[in-house]
Every structure is written in structure tokens, then in C-alpha cells.
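Researcher: Please translate sequence to C-alpha cells.
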Amino acid sequence: MKRKKFLFVLSFVAVVIFSLSCNGSARKDASENKDSTKKSDTVEKVEKGTVLRPPAGIVVSVNNHKLSQADFDKELKAHLSSLQGKMPPEKREEVTKVLGKRIVDEFIARSLLSDEADRRQIKAAEQEISQAIEELKRTLPPGVTMEEMLKRNNITQSRLKEEITLGIRIKKLLDQETSGQAKPSEKEVKEFYDKNRDKFKIPESVHVRHILVASGKEDTDAMKAEKKEKIEQIRKALLGGADFGQLAKEKSDCPSRERGGDLGVFIKGQMTKKFEEAAFKQKKGEIGPIVETEFGWHIIQVLEHTPERTQELTGEVKASISDYLEKQKKYAALHALLRKLKEKATIAIAEGI
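Model: Translation complete:
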């Protein structure tokens, strides 16, 4: 599991608020305020809902909550670190700005929702927290412990518990907001399906197995000739009736040899181009021609070729759509609650965020 994903699944806040609070509240520049030329170490008294500039060293303040520049920089650095090697250098400035805004938006949402949960005396029981931690453990990759993942992501046990506790409280808060909300009707589900049929398309796919004789850049001409001869002899044996799975186990250089060369089902765009082109053109069951890729020489056999199709509106699909629509209604309720809370709050955001 990637660090970024682990950080974002810590709480309901992280999963939901990042996507819901990005609209933020209307931000008023200091130049628009009559007293903007005054310098002060405290947030000025203004009408509720107005966004001002916080004192030096603070990136954002929400009522009595403050996010310091040091904590902001630390969190931003962690997010940028998780993207190391995944973004072009010329995009770094743009990505940094987007991440910075997201950190601020999340802080605002967390602060407002936490205060509202306090006002309503919403708490998280120890049993609920323990259950949530166990759920999180089940999302970890095989063989990776919670302690290892926390250390890898520089998160303490106490921070994890805080995040989960807040997530539970905010979920209860949202449940209160949507307690009278009706379940999506059959008509709503059908209308969504009819309007979004493109979202229910299952792409064309092939189920293949292969035998690989691997090659490398360091191979001499003699080595290449020897390997080419080997793959040709394997194909000859297959055409003569030899068992594909058995030969794959004995001769293939791919880890899939343990499964008789079975690579499973894949769609276009998931395999190297030459291999993919050959697999999708090949007839089911036939022993294909030798295909050369950057990995070496392959012999492909297509076990199943499934054309593109649209998923039918089965009970399972209906349940999935209903769940999606219900979540959308909850997200809308959360948006409305945040807007209402922001109107009553005093929020200050540092210039340039």
C-alpha cells in the first residue's frame, strides 16, 4: 500500500473532506478590507464568515484552531515525498500549490466539524475505535504489520487513534444530518443506470497463458541465436501436441510458469504493446507465432476472448448504484453542513494559499 493512500484512509475526514471541502469559503484579499494596512499579531474582529489573514507563523486559523507554518510544511513535505518520481519537475510548483490548498481546506473542514461534534456532544467509544483499527489492519498488504506501516509513514499510534476517533465522530455527525434521508428508489436507480450506461461497459478482454524465453541487453549475438532456437523448438513441440502448461513449467523464464504460464485476464493497455496486439488478434486456443518484446520471445495461447459488453442491471448492480446514490446524498448533506458552519466561523488564511 502506498504511503499517500495510507495517510488518506486514516479517517472518514481524509476520505471525504478532501473531495468535499475543496470549494472552501469565499476568500477575501487583504486589499479588500478597510483595515488591511494595520499590522497585528491577532486576527482582527470582523463579521462572521469573513476570511482574513492570520498572524505571522500561522497558515490558517479557524475560530480557536490554528495550523502553524511548521506543521503545514511538515504535512506538505510528506505528501510531496509520496509523489517522488511520479511527477515531472516542471509540475512540482503547480502540484505543491494544489496540495497546500488541500491541506488548508481539510484543516478548515476538520476544525469546523470537530467543533460541531463537540457542540452536539458526539463521542467515539473505545470499542468503536478498536474495531476501526482492526478494519484498517485488514487493508494492509500481506506480511505488513500496522507498526511497520506507521513507522514507514512517520505516524504515531496516538496520532492514528486521534484520526480514527475524529473520523468516527464526524461519521456520527453526518448520520445525524441524514437520519431522515430516504433510500434511493427503484426509479432513481434505473434513471441513473439509463443515463450512465457508458459507466457500466465492461471492456474487451483476453485470458492468456504464455511461455517466455527471456533476453537482455547484455546478450551476445550467439546467446540471442541460441534463445531464438530454444523458443522455436518449444513452439514446434506445442504444435506437435505437447502440453502447454507442462512446457511452461519446464521451459518458461516468466514467474507465471508456476501457474502453467497463466497470466490471467487483462484488457487493452495493461500489457506491453507487441504482446497485447498479438494476444487480441489471436484466435482462441491456437498456438500463436513467436512474439518478440523487450522481455524476450513469447509463445501465446488465448484461453478466452471476451468482447466489450454492457453490464446488465442485476440485483448486484442495483445495490451498487443505490449505495453510490446514498453516498452522494450524504456528501451533499456534508457540503450543506460545512457551508452553514463556515458562515458562522471566523477563518483566516495566509496570503498565497
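Researcher: Any highlights?
Model: The CA atoms of residues 185 and 191 lie 10 Å apart.
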